[in-house]
Write a structure and sequence with these properties.
alpha/beta, 3-stranded parallel sheet, two-stranded antiparallel ribbon, globular
Length: 122
């Protein structure tokens, strides 16, 4: 998105734009960011709203793993659906958490299935 012209080309495209939100905040970068905050930061860089659908994790994270992340200043990204609605972004919430070697990741299989399901609806 930072390469000159790419963001504007994506925004101008008639294709449906899907944003997959991070599961966790990043210390020093996105502390206390909500899902809408992430999208608004993207809009700020691009200069125009363009995201049609946002996929966000609503799955629970095991307490012991979550505490490790919180000790490093990272928390689950809060889904502020009321703000997304005001932004005109359709929200798709799914349990997308996969723990790999004590690291929180998106479950790539579930995520790809979710994206494929969106193509069938549209």
């Amino acid at each position: 998105m930072l390469v000159e012209g790419v963001a504007k080309a994506i925004a101008a495209s008639p294709a449906i734009k899907v944003y997959v939100c991070n599961i966790m905040t990043q210390p020093g970068e996105t502390e206390n960011y909500t899902v809408a905050d992430h999208i608004e930061a993207i809009y700020s860089h691009v200069g125009t709203p363009f995201i049609d659908i946002c996929i966000a994790n609503n799955g629970k994270i095991k307490t012991d793993i979550l505490k490790k992340y919180q000790n490093d200043g990272s928390n689950p990204v809060y889904i502020d659906s009321h703000v997304l609605k005001k932004l005109g972004v359709r929200l798709v919430e799914k349990n997308l958490v996969k723990i790999h070697n004590d690291l929180i990741r998106h479950d790539s299989g579930l995520l790809s299935q979710t994206i494929l399901e969106l193509t069938k609806v549209q």
